[in-house]
Write a structure and sequence with these properties.
The complex is a heterodimer of chains A (227) and B (309). Chain A is an alpha+beta fold and 227 residues long. Chain A has one domain. In chain A, 36% of the residues lie in helices and 20% in strands. Chain A has a six-stranded antiparallel beta sheet with strand order 1-6-2-3-4-5, with helices on both faces. A two-stranded parallel ribbon of chain A has the order 7-10. In chain A, strands 8-9 form a two-stranded antiparallel sheet. Chain A starts with a helix and ends with a helix. Chain B has 309 residues and is of the alpha+beta class. A five-stranded antiparallel beta sheet of chain B has the order 2-3-1-4-5. Chain B has a five-stranded mixed beta barrel with strand order 6-7-8-10-9. Classes of the chains: A alpha+beta (227), B alpha+beta (309). Chains A and B meet through helix 2 of A and helix 7, helix 9 and helix 10 of B.
Amino acid sequence: MRIEDELIKFNEAKLPENFVSIAVRIENGEAGHAAILIRHIKINYLYHFPGGTPPEIIQGFNEEGWYIYKIWEIINCEDENEVGAFLQHCRRVCEKSEITYSYITDGSKHNFQGEFESKSGLPELGTCVSFCLNTLTNSLIDAESYFHLDDWDDSELKESVDKWSQDQVKKKYPDLDWTLYNAFKKRITPIEYLCSAFLIDNYPIRKEKIIGVKPDVLEVIKNKFNN
Amino acid sequence: MLNEFVIKINNDGNGNDLSLTNIPIEAIDALNIFLVSLKDFASQYKKENVRFAIKDGCIETVMSYPETETDIDKEIEELLDGTSVNNSSIKIFKSIQDKVKQNGLEYSIIHRVNGVEKNITSIFKDKNFSYKRGPKKEFKEEILFIEGTLYDAGGKVTSNIHVESNNEEFTINCTKEQAAKVRVYNKVYVAVLKTSKEGRKPHYKCIDSYLKPEQFEYYEKFYKKIGSDKSLAKYDIIHDAILNILNENEPKIGKALKIMRLYNFNFSDRGVIRTILISLKPFKSDRKISEMYQSLANTLRAGSKNNVI
């Protein structure tokens, strides 16, 4: 019941004038792309890493209902200043990020200056999900990590995307330590990222918790996007 | 036709009929209250249009007024349904009610409007007319920067400092440690929390003190700049200030503490608090900062929806 009420299709419901949310774009009935949807004083901002182009914030974001999201209650949605400060942090990240698409999630973060702070020694590499996670992790005051990353592995990689992304990385970082790269290769899927929005009391979030809410989240998506 | 508000004393406690020729002593008291109460009530309106009567049959106190005096009807209706905010009228009706609720005599109360009679005895017996509070007077809290001359400091139980600034005297509560730092008849530079409420003397509490005037001016200017900036750029100012502190060869955490102290209140801008907290997160376990960091985090947490930040 709670998941159905709180998982909102874009522009589906009247919502607060200010909020930060965990958002995914639904492609062919599945969560295909991760983003952070911010509403600040009634204006929507989509903060995301498209993959092939640098991260961006789309101000005045609007679309025809392909995004679904859940308010991230770590940021008080009744306080425009708190949401505004988060938005400003995202702007600092966008100015400085040099992320290259890769199936790497190593617990790194974008520090308060918006700069990438590597945890593994690798350069700024990641997916649309890991880019969002790096930003959210830095905004958590009570926790150091968002996910318990050891619970994830590289079993859900898409082979063609993996090959394309490695080619990009080779061009940009010809001297990269590929042993290190392979050690942190893993994929957290957009649907898992969306499920995490329901688990704000459990940082770092375990995969088993995600598995617990995932069927209900999938069911709500199915219902909302089949009608 | 006149409209009427009627209070009848029907029987004594034993069921015996009462009349103007047969008034027990307790009925005199009730009659007195009813007459005075209705007189006070009527005095709020055009007195010349209102008449009173004491009628026989039982002991009947009657206030009558023309049908055109709709204000009186409206007020009585609002008193009966509990929507009146006129505490004078509520007080009058409470006096009548207190008497009617007492055991001993039997009463009935009638409101007659445009010939229609409404028995309202049960309203007087069953519900309580209660005073209405006006808008709650809220405390106003703000940070002030005071530069002045210290002319007294101390206190055994409650410590405070007395500062004169621009011909105004301020008694500022502070800790004993803060009081011990300052010297009488010298200049002092302090940031204070001013708490004020209409009709009450303001209360001042010392938040921080500054040794040098340039320090005082820097934090005053900084605080006012953030407060007056309505754009999101103010969070960059906070961010840059912390960054400059951390980029110093030997980061002076004391400077960061001075910024934190100015925003550790439930009325502080939560965006500023969050920006400070994420900026100083790598240092949150530092001995010099950890206590203040936790205090600021608790302030942010107290205003969060789920107690998580």
